[in-house]
Amino acid sequence: MRWFFLTILVLVGVGVQGYTLEESLLEMEGDGEVRGDLWAVLLAGSNGWFNYRHQADVCHAYQILHAHGVPDERIIVMMYDDIAYNEQNPTPGKIINRPRGPDVYHGVPKDYTGEDVTPENFLKVLRGDAEGLRGVGSGKVLGSGPNDRVFINMVDHGAPGLFAFPDDILHAENLTNALLYMHNNGMYNQLVIYVESCESGSLFQRLLPSDIEAYALSASSPRQHSYACYMDDERMTYLGDVFSVKWMEDTDVENLHKETLKKQFELVRQEVTTSTVMHWGELRLGGQKVARFLGNQDPSSIPQIQRFPMRSTEDDPCLNSSIASPDAPLGIYKAQLRHAKTLGAKRYWKEQIEALTMNRLLVKLMMWKVVAEVTGDREKASQMTSSSHIHDISRWGCYTASVRAFHEQCFNLAHNPYATRVLNSLVNLCEHGYTSDQVLAATKKICIHPPMPPVL
Ligand SMILES: *[C@@H]1O[C@H](CO)[C@@H](O)[C@H](O)[C@H]1NC(C)=O
Ligand SMILES: *[C@@H]1O[C@H](CO)[C@@H](O)[C@H](O)[C@H]1NC(C)=O
Asked: If I label 181, which of 94, 137, 311, 358 is the partner at 20 to 30 A Cα–Cα?
């Protein structure tokens, strides 16, 4: 009966203004009978008090799904879980995602925490590999089928073509392969993925196909930083990230049955002035209502959450405290220095800032030496490591293997987030025809420095 009705509509050419007919039909499906279930995977890839904001973002995302009626059985949360009861938390057991905001930690399922937060486990969750996760965490995996919708939210540090985890990195190709596997194995009807990380666009550019019913938003273009915000003087850390804060604070006040993904994308893209929010994959899905991916609960039954009034960048408390994510550790040290009361404390924080700055220089120098070893030419090395010399990644095999070599031989990219800032040199080497074998040989020869403290 329904298809007969739709066929008539097609014949009389009914289409909603601004959308193609196909989009209108998808919309009607969204508004009318909602087939299938919504599943969600939420991932915070970092740990440590410096990175409070990533887990806060993901907890907030959980609260949204929960409030909108998605049961815990269909929400899988992966986060280190070292924030709520961290010794630096002045409000033990509570996490907030904006200044004086509500607690977002209560009720968050602890499916995979601590050492279980790994790229392997994340990919197994996506592939629905329950066998592979037997005895690990809650063992919960995506159990979605061909009529279901899947929402994925990933928040952490990133770099060209990769996303960080507490001890390791996830390569963009592995993420793409998992999404293709899900598509080919009937694990969803439609999939939406929101990613907050530096260079997050590079996880999708030239990788996410536009014909697998998957739609992605990235906090930044393939070449931009993502931004942290809401420096909290009591907690001495940032409480959120600009893209995450903007999409979730929008979600908190919208009627999700009326707002489309496209509308949310446009709104967030306008509000995030620090980086360029981009969309990828099957853009046609933008016509879908947000409720289909964040929960269908009747909006009148959801408690209203006040939003900060937004007038301008200057008095928007997120934007006016924003900082490029790689600069967040320095921002935190500087806040500590400002608040230090004794001379001893002031000296301590000054030394921390100096040490961090020196160690960052050392990372840059090591990369320069690796590149000089590969090219055998100092001038070329300076050219390849120049921050203004940028390519899109096309030689993925070379790049991924080179990153792996640098990660394993020189600086663990998960423990030394600053080391992700110099990977562009490896993109350049690959794009100029050097090989990952040359990079591997060079890293083995050059990276013989003694262990050093994490380079944040
Ligand atoms: C990523 O993909 C590569 C190549 O297919 C594979 O060797 C590696 O094990 C994968 N990594 C993870 C974490 O699955
Ligand atoms: C940022 O905006 C908030 C709220 O409008 C305001 O109270 C605060 O003083 C502003 N901070 C800066 C650094 O401008």
From this structure: 137
